[in-house]
Write a structure and sequence with these properties.
Blueprint: H1 19-32, E1 41-42, H2 44-51, H3 55-67, E2 71-73, E3 79-81, H4 86-107, H5 113-132, H6 135-151, H7 159-173, H8 186-198, H9 202-220, H10 222-229
Helix pairs in contact: 1-3, 2-3, 4-6, 4-7, 4-9, 4-10, 5-6, 5-8, 6-7, 8-9, 9-10
């Protein structure tokens, strides 16, 4: 395992608050973009030495990753990278769709002009990340867009579940080669959601979210979409 290969530490379009935060995101990026494979061991001393971090900082980053289900810590046996199975992927995709549809129905009427400006800014940054080929920044900003909407639903206790579902879906959809069918820009992909929200039509916004997520899975992870459709 070589985290220094293609390292983007400190260079992402998404700024990190602390060095420890940057390390967490660097390891997470390598996992989400499949530069580190399932079953590989992450050595705390090795990571600390390569990036000049204390073992405590490394351990904290790995504990955060465990909370997201991306690694499993086994005491003296070390930390290994995990992957959700296809069956788990189907369940998490369906849970994500259900949560986001319900969340946006509760959020639609309360959104302000400042909220719409924040969402639009997020999409502009996603377009920039897509143009630069920064798949991890694109993944982070996509989650920010969707979670910003969800936070207006007052369903805060469900946010950690939604975040984990998003992360494991992104494991299957981000960083792959482009699909045969032309992929639209992030703004184009999310515009129907914004249009419905600005029209204060909660049901249309929920349907647009469902269609957007299903299309993303269909384009970037056909095996997952096939498994979902076969249920």
């Amino acid at each position: 395992m070589d985290l220094t290969k293609n390292s983007s530490l400190g260079q992402s379009l998404v700024p990190w608050k602390t060095k420890g935060d940057a390390l967490f995101h660097e390891i997470r990026r390598a996992i989400l973009l499949r530069e580190i494979q399932a079953g590989e061991t992450l050595s705390e001393p090795q990571i600390g030495s390569k990036f000049n971090f204390s073992q405590g900082t490394v351990r904290e980053a790995l504990m955060r990753l465990q909370e997201e289900g991306l690694v499993q810590r086994r005491g003296y046996h070390g930390t290994t990278v995990t992957r959700s199975s296809l069956i788990e992927g189907v369940q998490m995709a369906e849970i994500r769709i259900k949560l986001e549809m319900e969340g946006v129905r509760h959020a639609t009427d309360g959104l302000t002009e400042d909220d719409f400006a924040e969402l639009q800014d997020c999409l502009s940054r996603m377009d920039a990340a897509a143009k630069q080929g920064d798949s991890y920044a694109l993944s982070e900003l996509d989650r920010k867009f969707h979670l910003t909407l969800f936070r207006h639903s007052s369903m805060n206790a469900l946010e950690p579940i939604l975040t984990r579902c998003m992360l494991h879906m992104h494991l299957r959809t981000f960083g792959h080669s482009k699909p045969a069918k032309r992929a639209v820009t992030p703004t184009e992909a999310h515009q129907p959601i914004l249009d419905a929200l600005q029209g204060r039509n909660a049901d249309d916004a929920a349907a647009a979210l469902r269609d957007h997520i299903n299309l993303t899975i269909s384009l970037w992870s056909p095996p997952l979409k096939s498994a979902m459709d076969s249920r």
